[in-house]
Amino acid sequence: MTALADRPATAPIIDIAKIRRDFPVLNEKVRDKKLAYFDNGATTQKPLTVIYAMQRFYAAENANIHRGVHFLSQQATFAYERARGRIGQFVNAAENAEIIFVRGTTEAINLVAQSYGRRHIGAGDEIVVSHIEHHSNIVPWQMLAEEKGATVKVAPIDETGEFLFDEFEKLLSERSKIVAITHASNSLGTILPIKEIAAKAHEHGAVVVVDGAQGVPHLPVDVQDLDCDFYAFSGHKIFGPTGVGVLYGKKALLQDMPPWEGGGSMIERVSFAGTTYAPPPMRFEAGTPHIAGGIGLEAAIDYVNSIGRENIAAYEKDLTTYAHEALQEIPGLRLIGTARNKVAVVSFTLGEIHPHDIGTILDTEGIAVRAGHHCAQPTMQFFQVPATVRASLAFYNTRDEIDALVRALHKANEVFQ
Ligand code: C6P
Question: Which run of H or E residues covers position 58?
């Protein structure tokens, strides 16, 4: 289709054919066409190792955890806690107790807002977010601010979607108590300089909450190096199951935080005279958790490690550049989000065609994208568009699939001419 297809790959070789065999859904046909799955920002596909790990748990090892003396319960507890440890290593937490299992990024951020936030935020305090946050990293802070009489400040971006560090710095003062910031934007792909943001926020005494939903699937993450106070991510966006996610928190902060949900597992001792709470992480894990989910997430992390996070980042960078260059050839196509440092997210509009119509045409070609506001309405407002088409890539996507996308977009142009 395009001369770009002849461009030599500069990224380190990863064995795409093998990788694609590991993800059965990628070999499905959709609408009688070869599936090209570009909706990885919404959720990623699962490798067989994840599917088998969860199947094995339910078929041979299923039991509740932390409460049984019988063999299966002890095995399940061991597996779940081993998963916690593996996740801790993956993000380089100092201790396993800094890893809290939650349902996903949304729950992780709400946990911080409701527990840390309600204890530490008061009238007149300020919470700083960026203009390109997902609603999950805006609304919990607005709810907290409304309850406490605090204010949410917004760090601006430029017309490429780049985070304006100097402008962010100007917003900070002794009133800043929380900086809640995304590692990478889900609608534009912009990567934010978390380490520098955290250092600056700490100079002003603010704690730093990172929404890592779109960071961890694409970038190596070292929470100690970033020196963030909290880091949240979702299992299903990193090739693991839905319904399980992670909140990393610095131990000293977690120890000082009250529980936000009450129930079994999170207590030390309960009586009608009063209840005492377990230390972290159990203090924040009331009730029976998604045990198979934790085990599946461990398998996903092992899978990602087996490919290598540096290899993934390099391969995806090459593929994203290829996609940008190929898409720019299409008449009327406007890329939304062209920051220098991006994860594999390519957002665009095409002439006056509504993104939903484009999404529908692409679907008839077996191409799965997301068309909409991506739960980032303030970002859409900034670019003065109601919605975009978003192709969010993963390491199993290929240049051939990008070529198929380009062909389908030419077709959309013809249909709507
Ligand atoms: N973004 C997307 O299509 P949950 O739903 O809790 O797993 O993740 C929420 C979330 C938080 N932050 C960012 C940056 C995200 O991208 C998401 C989820 C999906 O972009 C669904 S809206």
Answer: none
DSSP state of 105: H
Give the distance (Å) from ligand 1 centre to CA of residue 67.
33
- Kindly give the distance from the C-alpha atom of residue 373 to the centroid of ligand 1, in angstroms, as a whole number: 12
Give the integer Cα–Cα distance in Å for 18 and 32.
23
pLDDT at 3 over 80: no
Helix (H, G, I), strand (E, B) or coil at 394: coil
- The one catalytic residue in 48, 164, 171, 375 is 375
Taking only the tens place, the pLDDT of each residue in 333-357 is: 999 999 999 999 999 999 999 999 9
Q: Which CATH superfamily is domain 2-44+309-415 in?
A: Aspartate Aminotransferase, domain 1 (3.90.1150.10)
CB distance 347 to ligand 1 below 6 Å:
no
Q: Is 211 in the pocket of ligand 1 (CB under 6 A)?
A: yes
| Residue 375 appears among annotated catalytic residues | yes
Do residues 202 and 192 make contact, with C-beta atoms less than 8 angstroms apart? no
Q: What's the chain's length in residues?
A: 417
CATH of domain 50-305: 3.40.640.10
How far apart CA 328 and CA 258 sit, in angstroms, is: 51
Q: Is residue 44 lining ligand 1, measured as CB closer than 6 Å?
A: no
Q: Where in the chain is the domain with CATH 3.40.640.10?
A: 50-305
Residue with token string 């390099």: 314
Residues 6+ apart with CB under 8 A from 170: none
- What is the model's pTM? 0.96
Q: What is the pLDDT of residues 224-252, one digit of tens each?
A: 999 999 999 999 999 999 999 999 999 99
Nearest CA to ligand 1 atom 5: 106
Give 251 Cα–ligand 1 centroid separation in angstroms: 26
Span from the CA of 343 to the centroid of ligand 1 (angstroms): 15
pLDDT of residue 67: 83
A 10 A CB-CB count for 268 gives 11
Does the Cβ of 186 fall within 6 Å of ligand 1? yes
In the chain, which residues fall in CATH 3.90.1150.10?
A: 2-44+309-415
